[in-house]
Design goal:
The chain is an alpha/beta fold. The chain contains two helices and eight strands, in the order βαββββαβββ. β3 and β4 form a beta hairpin. The longest helix has 13 residues.
Length: about 130
């Protein structure tokens, strides 16, 4: 249902390197780009994650309550992607672990521009 999500950046090269390495952990590769936009996807039919220089030329800001959630097919992969994010300079917003009693398992972090993300898995998810 979701086609793509964009997060703004004020340091395009740093953000591109962060997402190149982070999304590779989930099988993501660059699928589309130009001088102010890069999109990654894990397949032609999948949703894309994108960085963008704001069109209006103003500074990118992160929204309070806005979060990008990255799906993983196991708790081990959640742990691995979260660790990669921290290694790449992300700030911890909640270490990986179970949340509630539904089997939801997630780790939360902020990218170099302060955008909030999580990587999660739930029972029955497949890669």
């Amino acid at each position: 249902m979701i086609g793509y999500v964009t997060v703004g950046t004020n340091d395009f090269d740093k953000s591109a390197a962060f997402y190149d390495a982070l999304l590779a952990e989930l099988g993501g590769k660059r699928m589309m780009e130009d001088e102010g936009f890069i999109a990654w996807s894990s397949g032609a039919q999948g949703a894309a994650v994108s960085i963008i220089k704001p069109f209006d030329g103003k500074a990118a800001t992160n929204g309070n309550g806005t979060m990008l959630a990255l799906a993983a097919n196991s708790t081990d992969l959640v742990d691995k992607v979260y660790a990669k994010a921290i290694e790449l300079g992300a700030q911890c917003e909640g270490k990986p672990g179970p949340r509630g009693e539904s089997g939801f398992y997630a780790g939360y972090f902020r990218d170099p521009d302060g955008n909030k993300l999580n990587v999660f898995t739930m029972p029955g998810m497949t890669g």
